[in-house]
Amino acid sequence: MPAYSHYSDNVLMLLLKEGDAIAFNEIYSRNWQQLYQTAYRRLKDRELCKDVIHDVFADLWNKCAEKDIADLQPYLHTAVRYKIYTLLAKGNAAPHFVEPFEDMAVSPVMADSWLEADELERLIGLWLDTLPKKRQQIFKMRYEENLSTKAISEQLNISQKTVQNQLLNSISGLRGYLSHYLTILIILGFFNK
């Protein structure tokens, strides 16, 4: 029997697509604890967190053949966040979390999303060009250079709160900008069936 613990996530995903239960168990054992901690930080409810993790892995098992998952870790974390936000939106969970500002980010886009990564990068680039220069600089420092808000504030000699406000305004604007394109894609997808 091969040592699945030595396999990369990509190899495990290929085996999982073939219905390999041992590969699934290895993926689960590598990731469940970190995903549980992510869920618990937001929900503060052990049973609800277990349900979220169970649903994410059940979806992975049931739908892995349909999906082209390029990077397993971001996919699983995005799936957990999506399940949590769905629970909160439906009112099935109390919003016991306050997400730290440093954790707020645009979710990574998976290969099986509506927009291809290249198209998304192009749209974000077009949107960035419309921002004031200072906000553009702060956004790039945070999301391209991966600097903390504290480091940005020190480099630009402005308060951390100003940096956070600029980023919050940027993220809000970006979501609105991209939602316009997603709406168009959904409508086009509906009429092209």
From TrEMBL:
<dbReference type="InterPro" id="IPR036388">
    <property type="entry name" value="WH-like_DNA-bd_sf"/>
</dbReference>
<dbReference type="InterPro" id="IPR013249">
    <property type="entry name" value="RNA_pol_sigma70_r4_t2"/>
</dbReference>
<dbReference type="GO" id="GO:0003677">
    <property type="term" value="F:DNA binding"/>
</dbReference>
<dbReference type="InterPro" id="IPR039425">
    <property type="entry name" value="RNA_pol_sigma-70-like"/>
</dbReference>
<keyword id="KW-0731">Sigma factor</keyword>
<keyword id="KW-0805">Transcription regulation</keyword>
<dbReference type="InterPro" id="IPR013325">
    <property type="entry name" value="RNA_pol_sigma_r2"/>
</dbReference>
<keyword id="KW-0804">Transcription</keyword>
<protein>
    <submittedName>
        <fullName>RNA polymerase sigma-70 factor (ECF subfamily)</fullName>
    </submittedName>
</protein>
<feature type="domain" description="RNA polymerase sigma-70 region 2">
    <location>
        <begin position="28"/>
        <end position="90"/>
    </location>
</feature>
<dbReference type="Pfam" id="PF08281">
    <property type="entry name" value="Sigma70_r4_2"/>
</dbReference>
<dbReference type="InterPro" id="IPR013324">
    <property type="entry name" value="RNA_pol_sigma_r3/r4-like"/>
</dbReference>
<comment type="similarity">
    <text>Belongs to the sigma-70 factor family. ECF subfamily.</text>
</comment>
<dbReference type="GO" id="GO:0006352">
    <property type="term" value="P:DNA-templated transcription initiation"/>
</dbReference>
<dbReference type="GO" id="GO:0016987">
    <property type="term" value="F:sigma factor activity"/>
</dbReference>
<feature type="domain" description="RNA polymerase sigma factor 70 region 4 type 2">
    <location>
        <begin position="128"/>
        <end position="167"/>
    </location>
</feature>
<dbReference type="Pfam" id="PF04542">
    <property type="entry name" value="Sigma70_r2"/>
</dbReference>
<dbReference type="InterPro" id="IPR014284">
    <property type="entry name" value="RNA_pol_sigma-70_dom"/>
</dbReference>
<dbReference type="InterPro" id="IPR007627">
    <property type="entry name" value="RNA_pol_sigma70_r2"/>
</dbReference>
